[in-house]
Amino acid sequence: MSAPVVLSPSNTLPVLSVSDLCKKYGVKAAVDCISFAVRRNEIVGLLGPNGAGKTTTFNMILGVLEPTSGSIRIEGVDLRAQRSRALASTNFAAVYAPLPGNLTVQENLRIFAMIYGVKKVSRRLAEVLEEFELEKFRHVKCGVLSSGEQTRACLAKAMLNQPKLLLLDEPTASLDPATARDIRGRIREFARRGTGGVLWTSHNMYEVEEVCDRVLFLSRGRILLEGDPRTLPGEHGKQTLEELFITVAREPLTLEL
Amino acid sequence: MYLPRVAAIVLRQFYLIRGSISRVMPIFIWAAVDMVLWGFMSRYLSGMLSGFNFVSTLLGAVLMWDFCTRVMQGVTLAFFEDVWSRNFLNFFATPLSISEYLVGLVLSSVITSSIGIVVMLLLAMGVFGLSFLTYGFMLVPFFLVLFLFGIALGIAAAGMVLRLGPASEWFVWPVPALLSPFAGVFYPLSALPVWMRGFSRLLPPAYVFEQMRAILSHQRVSIAALATALGLALVYVALACWFFALMYRHSVRTGLIARYSAETLS
Fold first, then answer.
1. Cα separation of the two ends of chain B
2. pLDDT tens track for B27-40
3. Chain A residues 29-68 with a CB less than 8 Å from chain B
4. CB within 8 Å: B5 and A115
5. Which domains does chain A have, with CATH numbers?
6. A87 contacts on B by Cβ (under 8 Å)
7. A115 touches chain B (CB under 8 A)
8. A39, A75, A189 from A192: Cα distances, Å
């Protein structure tokens, strides 16, 4: 599925490298020493039931939650040691982090473009507004957009700096099927043509099968399974990814390696 | 420090203020009300007790204290905008550093408090005849000390709200009123009991107001007192920044930044 990108030494590094990452609250481990990588041109699905540790993992990668131990490297840059540099090549969209509703789409995008150090801001704004079909909402406050339009505005923000690592937490949760398919296509295109990778969470297994090159099943803070979403169910005696997901959620011990 | 990020924080405040009458009015309306109230009060008292210039003493002091308060509120209101719009996750998951964020808040406050002080000066000088020429060049250190102390209060208050959650905003508003008796805005520190004077010596504005009164009563200005006030104000700014960074680190360690509306994680 990868695009024909010429690999220089820097291109061979994973865009995200997570090693022995733990987050404990007292004795309870929300994330229990997980390790994984996201490579260039790859879309990795982080799956698991509610409370499995997906959002905790996301928050640690975004630098808004300090790990108890372990390391996170983005483009080879250690997040703990060089936070600003590591996050400059990252961006994200999540249903629980809408853009401030009291500013217009263009105002919000301009502010985030400046924060991410985007060059030629006006040109880049025009590009993402067109890409996500937001031109007619340019001067509309984000708070009055429909949830689908807000999601598109968040995705436009996430693409502003052409990130090397794109984190998407249920990006199509509030979109109608046609728009969701369109958005999936754009994100696949982003992963194929550029030099970035995507870490994606979703509860829509059909979507995961369609989009992700690889999936990681998380349960109780640990990575339980990893593999190709199209072959993984069969490898574990299940018909579909959804069936496998339900087993992970209800009977994780039956799958533990 | 990457200046476009600082500029982005200021630009956000500009966008918010530009489009909202409810944000434009508070920049100067309360300051204007204070000027009118204390202007007439000063004029009335000057008429009652001839020979004592209440306009310079009282109205001048109120204006200076209002300036300090506006500077503090300029920082806290800019910060509250991110609290109210639940913007912490969006901002703090970017390359934006805490120092860039704080400098952005301070610059936003410089702009809003400058508008406030211009309105106050126009009213106090134009309507009530307050003359700041009396203070001469001493106005520079006076305003500088009050500005720095207002910044320190604003950053410390923002740090407290970051730690305690949105509802703790309530603690911030009465801070200037709680400090004003100790700062000697309306009376000399000698009017205070000894224990209160001890606390006053820790407050940079107390030195400013004492020196303002010294000028009006034709006494020499104590450069040592002003240097102490400036030194204290700088220490408070440094302490406030340290406190905010400490509260931020706590919020990142516990995960409060990502779940700020929950207020606590227990």
1. 35
2. 888 888 988 898 88
3. 55-56, 59, 62-66
4. yes
5. 13-89+163-254 (3.40.50.300), 98-162 (no CATH)
6. 93-95
7. yes
8. 12, 17, 5
pLDDT digits (tens, 9 = 90+) for A39-79: 999 999 999 888 889 999 999 999 999 999 999 999 999 99
User: What six digits make up the tokens of A197?
Assistant: 């990778």
Annotate B148-204 with DSSP letters as a single string: HHHHHHHHHHHHHHHHH-GGGHHHHTTHHHHHHHHHTSSS-GGGS-HHHHHHHTT-H
* Mutation to test the B interface, candidates A22, A82, A111, most B Cβ within 10 Å: A111
Mutating which of B20, B90, B108 best tests the A interface, going by the most A Cβ atoms within 10 A? B90
Contact between A59 and B8 using a beta-carbon 8 Å cutoff: no
Mean pLDDT value across residues A133-158: 92
Tokens 């360690």 belong to residue: B253
> Tell me: the pLDDT tens digits for A201-227?
988 888 898 899 999 999 889 998 899
Mean pLDDT of chain B: 90
Which residue is closest to B252 within chain A, CA to CA?
Answer: A65
Kindly provide the ipTM of the predicted complex, given to two decimals.
0.87
Query: Closest Cα of chain A to B101: distance in Å?
Result: 10
Q: Do A111 and B15 touch (CB under 8 A)?
A: yes
Residue B4 has its nearest CB partner, among A84, A94, A117, at A117
Residue by residue, DSSP assigns A198-215 as EEEE-S-HHHHHHH-SEE
Phi, psi of B60 (to 5 degrees): -60, -45
Q: How far is CA A226 from CA A170, A219, A232, A250, A253, in A?
A: 19, 12, 8, 18, 15
Confidence (pTM): 0.90
CB contact under 8 A, B15 and A85: no
Where b means 16+ CB within 10 Å and e means fewer, A41-68 reads bbbbbbbbbeebbbbbbbbbbbbbbbbb
CA torsion angle for B232, B233, B237, B239 (degrees, to 10)? 20
**Can you tell me the distance from the alpha carbon of A196 to that of A189, in angstroms, rounded to the nearest whole number?**
11
CA angle A109, A113, A119 (to 5 degrees): 135
Is A96 in the B-facing interface, judged by CB distances under 8 Å?
Answer: yes
